[in-house]
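in:
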């Protein structure tokens, strides 16, 4: 870890909020800025990172320096237990001490080389893996944690616990990201259905699009947005104001981002991610600027 300048944890108290998706896209974005980046997946029981980086069925290689990460690009290396499973469908049925041992081994025995950023994708919660990573990184220092949530109270209840976890163990909260903040996509990408008298759905997409082309062509370039989760409680922004932590921004639920993650691609190199890519770019730029990470990395601080 002595050769790693900055270490960023990506956490959430709730599962299924898009934390691994954010970690993957953060790593892609930093690598595109010409930083040397490592992405460490410590979700031992549910490693998603190999899939989201397009690295399924890749193997870890051993050298005299230690374990070598699997590389997406020359400046983006990845390490995950997913690379160690003989079959990707195999379940990892381990108790806490064995999980902790592997996390320590990842930190001690993986030879990353000189890194500007190490992004650590953690499982949901505040349990063994989180205590281990914080304790292990304490000696070399961790810049802080990005916490990912969705807008509804069911998620925010658990995310509040994650914020308090960070405060108790002395990890700075770099900011909170509200993911899946409404569904937003081009109107032309929607499928239109009509409910028949017997309760079945009939696809009328072609008729609707044909009607718009003929009668209202100006509508074809519109974006359509809708609330998916209840945000009437104020969402992540209100929680951040109440708990005194930075709010980094919102990322809408974008089917094209989901597709990019499924295919292991960067959303920033994909012209189809017209909604999510600008939102993520703005959040990452705010993160770097607010914490002085860009200047610090380039100066070797």
């Amino acid at each position: 870890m002595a050769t790693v300048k900055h270490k960023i944890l990506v956490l959430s108290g709730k599962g299924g909020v898009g934390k691994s998706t954010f970690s993957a896209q953060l790593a892609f974005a930093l690598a595109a800025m010409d930083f040397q980046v490592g992405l460490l997946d410590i979700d031992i029981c549910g490693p998603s990172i190999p899939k989201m980086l397009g690295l399924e069925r890749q193997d870890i290689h051993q050298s005299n320096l230690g374990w070598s990460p699997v590389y997406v690009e020359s400046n983006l290396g990845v390490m995950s237990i997913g690379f160690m499973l003989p079959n990707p469908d195999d379940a990892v049925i381990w108790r806490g001490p064995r999980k902790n041992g592997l996390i320590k081994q990842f930190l001690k025995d993986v030879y990353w080389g000189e890194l500007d950023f190490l992004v650590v994708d953690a499982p949901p919660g505040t349990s063994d893996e989180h205590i281990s990573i914080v304790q292990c990184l304490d000696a070399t220092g961790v810049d802080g944690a990005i916490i990912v949530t969705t807008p509804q109270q069911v998620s925010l209840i658990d995310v509040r616990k994650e914020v308090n976890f960070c405060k108790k163990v002395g990890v700075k909260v770099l900011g909170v990201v509200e993911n899946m903040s409404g569904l937003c996509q081009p109107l032309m990408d929607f499928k239109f259905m009509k409910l028949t008298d017997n309760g079945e759905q009939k696809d009328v997409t072609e008729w609707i699009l044909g009607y718009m082309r003929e009668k209202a062509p100006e509508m074809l370039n519109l974006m359509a947005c809708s609330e998916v989760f209840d945000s009437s409680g104020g969402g992540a922004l209100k929680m951040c104001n109440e708990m005194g932590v930075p709010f980094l921004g919102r990322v809408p639920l974008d089917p094209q981002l989901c597709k990019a993650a499924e295919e292991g691609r960067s959303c920033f190199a994909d012209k189809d991610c017209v909604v999510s890519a600008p939102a993520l770019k703005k959040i990452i730029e705010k993160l770097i600027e607010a914490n002085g990470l860009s200047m610090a990395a380039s100066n070797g601080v």
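note: DSSP finds ten helices and 13 strands in the chain.
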